[in-house]
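Lecture 7, part B: from sequences to assemblies.

Below are the input chains for today's worked example.
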Amino acid sequence: MTLEDEQRQDQRITDGPEPKHIQLSAAVARLATESLTPGEMIPSERTLMTEYGVSRATVRKAVDSLIVDGLLRRVPGKGTFVVQPRLESRLHLASFTQDMRRRGLHPTTRLISCEAVEPPPEAAASLGMDTPGSRGRAWALTRVRCADGQPIAVETGWYPASLFPDLDRRDLAGSLYDIFSADYGVLIDAAEQTLWGEAADAPTARMLEAEPATPLLVFRRVSHAAGRPAEHVVSRYRGDRYQVHMSLSRDDVSSS
Amino acid sequence: MTLEDEQRQDQRITDGPEPKHIQLSAAVARLATESLTPGEMIPSERTLMTEYGVSRATVRKAVDSLIVDGLLRRVPGKGTFVVQPRLESRLHLASFTQDMRRRGLHPTTRLISCEAVEPPPEAAASLGMDTPGSRGRAWALTRVRCADGQPIAVETGWYPASLFPDLDRRDLAGSLYDIFSADYGVLIDAAEQTLWGEAADAPTARMLEAEPATPLLVFRRVSHAAGRPAEHVVSRYRGDRYQVHMSLSRDDVSSS
DNA sequence: GATACGGTCTGGTACGTACCAGTTGACTAT
DNA sequence: ATAGTCAACTGGTACGTACCAGACCGTATC
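Predicted structure of the full complex, as structure tokens:
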């Protein structure tokens, strides 16, 4: 198969289980990230409908989703443009590892435990494991994240065992998302995250080598892969030693 | 006008400058927040099209936007349901005003002070006002943001006076970004934001009607317009009353 | 009582038509 | 050289039709 064939293959929208608007969304995303630079215009809606053989409504639906994702923006009368990639990681955009490296620190991870359990109700609900027929076990994974040997955060996550068989046999000291995509073909593509402040309880304080009641920044995240929930994780960062930096672009910027 | 008339008025979708899908979006949002509780089903798409006299595509577009906003969720074969309100709004994506409205609260702003001063060193540095030849004054603006009359946050911001002449003559109880674009042609398009936890000092505690040492979630933001710094603002939210939710997409998701 | 089936609801996908509004460039008139 | 007009592009709105797939309920049968 020549490169041209591959490109044509890439470009083809087929009838099948995967909706056309999702196939097109992926194709346009690849185009935007691999062939265009921020500020460049993607082909017009009418051009995309001709090239891919779909209706304009399908094109619009596909592009809509990339706009919601922050990859594109539309300008009436002008076109649809690739958006500037964030200059730095947004909140938790970078992995813990990358975050610490950027801060000039050496990141390490201590695995505390990884066992298959019946998840607690909140995690079960987030993971869609709370109805009859969908109950089962999830990996409960607890890790302490360190920078230059200093504990910075405690993470407790739940991962459906049916989605990630034998997860305990993997090297869990690195990036879980890399393991998910490399070993399981699961690509985390969206997440909902909630942030609040709380005081450390005794076990958490011990793992963080901190006094009880140390202020914490807590992040709870539910991550999805292709629409299905794959991760429910709570990360507790020492609030006195950790702050978060993020870059926002136009569609992220709020009015004061 | 009787209540029934008001409801009918509320319900009417009219031709006019405001698109029907936006009018319907607002109507359904009101229905979802005022008449339904989380977990309840909204009227079906076909019912809404009959009641509001619009097409099903228009209904779906309106509902789509409420789903993106985190207000509703669809279940194929079952219906569209109201979602727990706390799951709304991305981190500072929406303005404070929109954020509070989505949480079903009435947002107001108390202007504490707005005066032209020489900015403190940190703000001056962020705004590029710390070198000879670029010194000058900046508006120091302090506001208390309230929801349903309850103070939620204190904001202190600095805005270069040369960029925003006569800012003190504007109505500063609303969205500054709207004023910037409408009156000054300045479009905020990027920002750097840092987040940490701290305890409230006495003046801040008083403005927030809280005890001293109340835990706060603090956001410091430096905003840019077309590459030039335009705003340095610190917002202190009561950590006990406020949590932040955000949605992350693929390029936002970090590795665990 | 359990199971299977059909009907009716729900949302999802995909197409099509028509027109509106914004932007831009070419062309023409002054 | 400048201003105005128009056509051709762009995205936006709105409607319509048709069919698919999931969920649920009622009924019939075993």
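Note for the exam: The first helix of chain A runs from residue 3 to 11. Keep this in mind when comparing with the next example.
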